[in-house]
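Title: Prediction job returns without error message
Component: structure pipeline
Severity: low
Priority: P3
Assignee: unassigned

Description:
Job completed but the reporter wants confirmation the result is attached to the right record. Sequence as submitted:
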Amino acid sequence: MWEPPGREVNDHVLIVIWAGSGRFRLPQGWVPLRPGVCLWLRPGYCYRASQDPDLPVRHNFMHFKLVDEADRIRGEGAPLPPEFIQPPDPEFAEAVSRRVVEMCFGFRPMGYAVVPPQSDAACLASGMLRSLLMDLDAASDRSVDSPSPLVLPQHERMVRQAILRIAEDLHETPSVAELAQLSRYSVSCFSRIFKQVTGEPPERFIVRTRLHRAERLLRETDMPVGEVAINVGYKDIYFFSRQFKKFMGVSPTLFRRQLQVGKTKR
């Protein structure tokens, strides 16, 4: 999954963590890996990583080069964000990085299908990656010496921690009451703050996060629909199918069938 210990990175690499637990060794020291974290690795450095065998790390990653306005490779002294970044919107980072990889390579179970992208798709993917890098740059404190995440206002930091806790293990997602207790707020106060920051109540956010993960599993794996439901925290496959159709417009079975038809037409 990761590059072998001590291997030198040859170009810039953006890693977006969306599941699991582990740690990563940067030149400044070890930093934690958890859902929502982004790593911007530098060319010419050696990195090491480890992960919890019970919670393997899942991530999207992209290799890229930085160029100036004249399309020349930027020098090593160019200012860059810190290597460890915790973006203000982890879902945006995960969705954009996943789409970039999908457009360029296409997801396949147990790996990637390396197919040269069409020029129009490559151009669009390049623009999306550029936007994501700019967003991460703006979110960082522009300190290349510290791997610490950006310090946010208290309420935003609390909601971010709750979001990461939700994404850690959708099979055992804590209830809103448990999230409120962990945040040391009452349920009503926690729900109000959560909605102010994210734009939706925590109950709906949890459902949408589960179904977003289910969509990915249906797209990227051959896992049976019932197993997908259990994996994202549903004990009743029929209830899962109803919620999936309510949010996505089609049942999970039809969703996968449409994907297979689309791949055949390509």
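Comment from assignee: result matches the submitted record. Residues 12-139 form a domain with the Jelly Rolls fold (CATH 2.60.120.280).
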